[in-house]
Every structure is written in structure tokens, then in C-alpha cells.
Specification:
The chain has helices spanning 15-31, 55-64, 97-102, 105-127, and strands spanning 39-42, 50-52, 71-72, 88-94, 133-136, 140-146. By secondary structure, the chain is of the alpha+beta class. It has 2 domains: 11-82; 85-161. The strands form 2 sheets. A 3-stranded antiparallel beta sheet has the order 2-1-3, covered by helices on one side. It has a 3-stranded antiparallel beta sheet with strand order 4-6-5, sandwiched between helices. β5 (133-136) and β6 (140-146) form a beta hairpin. The chain is globular, with a radius of gyration of 18 Å. The relative contact order is 0.14.
């Protein structure tokens, strides 16, 4: 959910919308077979990622940061010999800031939405991808696409160089 405010308005995040978004992301991680916790997250209050061990700890950290610059790592923390399995693709599409400056934010958002739709249509028709999630980040869109890889790229013969 996107919350817009004028320069003079106080922006109040919708805590329930954040919970629903976190639950959606956690559901996707569960579907692709990733352990949900421990999980690295980031907020505006910290420099770099830090580890949380349950959803309440994650939500509390997000709320403490007033929901600014909150991120959830796509992969569990790497420990010892465990290597991340690349089973999530993130496409990061940002607003065209020149379009925002010279035209309007609404025009830039419309152009970005059209670009995202073209990319998704191409992925759907070319690769039969039908399971994905599109998130508004405040500065653009993230498209999350789960893949069926079950081991690191180094162990997939066609991907080794």
C-alpha cells in the first residue's frame, strides 16, 4: 500500500498494510522452500543488515524505524558451509527522476507501470512465469520471481563456467 502526503501533511504508515506485505513476502519464501528465520533485515536506523529470529522482532524493528528504508533479505544468512540457493529473482525498477522533474510524478509512475507490465508480459509469454509478486517501494517497483533451483549455481553443471 502506498501512502501519499503533501509536504505539509504528516505521513502515517499503515501498520496493518505493512504486516500484510511482510506476510506476503514470508509466504513466498515459504513456497520456495526457504527457512523463514533467522533472516537478515535492514532499516533506516541501522547501517547494514542485522539478523532477526521471528516475525515479531522483524515488525518491531520496522516500526521502530518508522517503516523507513525497511528491507528483508531474499536469502537466509550464510553460515559455515551453507551457500544460498538462488531461488528468487529480484527485478528493481525505479522511477525515472528526469520524468518526475520535467513532467510529473504521476506520469513517471504511469511509465514505470507500463514498463513493469511489458516485462511481466514478456516473462509470462517467453518463460511461462506465472508466479510473481510486484511491490511498490516508494521509489519504484520490485518484481519478485521465485525459481525452482534447489542447490547453488556452482552445483548445476549447465551454469558452471
Amino acid at each position: 500500500m502506498v501512502i501519499e502526503a503533501s509536504k505539509d501533511e504528516l505521513l502515517v504508515p499503515d501498520k496493518n498494510a505493512v504486516k500484510k506485505g511482510v506476510n506476503s513476502i514470508m509466504s513466498m519464501l515459504k513456497i520456495i522452500g526457504q527457512p523463514l528465520f533467522p533472516r537478515n533485515i535492514m532499516t533506516a536506523d541501522y547501517h547494514g543488515f542485522f539478523t532477526v529470529y521471528d516475525v515479531n522482532q522483524l515488525l518491531n524493528a520496522f516500526e521502530k524505524a518508522e517503516f523507513r528504508d525497511c528491507r528483508i533479505s531474499a536469502y537466509s544468512p550464510v553460515t559455515g558451509d551453507n551457500q544460498p540457493v538462488p531461488n528468487m529473482l529480484l527485478l528493481d525498477l525505479d522511477l525515472d527522476h528526469k520524468l518526475v522533474a520535467f513532467k510529473s510524478k504521476q506520469m513517471a509512475e504511469r511509465a514505470l507501470r507500463n514498463s513493469a507490465n511489458r516485462i511481466l508480459t514478456k516473462l509470462q509469454t517467453t518463460y511461462s512465469i506465472s508466479n510473481f509478486m510486484v511491490l511498490w517501494t516508494g521509489n519504484g517497483r520490485h518484481i519478485l520471481i521465485p525459481f525452482g533451483f534447489d542447490r547453488p549455481f556452482e552445483y548445476i553443471s549447465v551454469l558452471r563456467s
